[in-house]
Amino acid sequence: MLHNNLIIFFHCLGSVLQLSLCLKILCRYAMTGQLTQKSDVYSFGVVLLELLTGRKPVDHNMPRGQQSLVTWATPRLSEDKVKQCVDPKLKGEYPPKGVAKLAAVAALCVQYEAEFRPNMSIVVKALQPLLRPPAPTPET
Fold this sequence. Notes:
Residues 1-22 form the signal peptide. By secondary structure, this protein is mainly alpha-helical. The protein has helices spanning 2-13, 19-32, 37-53, 69-73, 96-109, 120-131. The chain has a single domain (2-128), classed as Transferase(Phosphotransferase) domain 1 (Transferase(Phosphotransferase), domain 1), CATH 1.10.510.10. It contains six helices and no strands. Helix 1 crosses helix 3 (37-53), helix 3 runs antiparallel to helix 5 and helix 5 runs antiparallel to helix 6 (120-131). The longest helix is centred in the first third of the chain and has 17 residues, at 37-53. The protein is globular and about 60 Å long. 26% of the residues are buried. Mean pLDDT is 80; it is low at 13-17.
């Protein structure tokens, strides 16, 4: 849980656009001492974006508008644009449909309004097909 809190905190530092969301999260945490399942889903979405892009949640070395991973990546998570944000270290060697699915799940997880984020069980079900290796091809 501490790791999730740190991801949210550092993400909040890097994104003025999401200040109200961060204030909501911090107020809820201050009042109850707990975060919600939906804030955990958001944090997991940030982790998915880190895996997809190879970037940190907040990078002050990046130009303005690109410092917050969520703010930068969100408009690039559609299937037709996701190539723009895939980690260049992969050198194009990845399954495009799998990456598109991962990006779609990440986009759901980092939605601004918590009530629109899926439950973690739905996230797990959506990601499970990506864990299965492709079926072996018959030898001829």
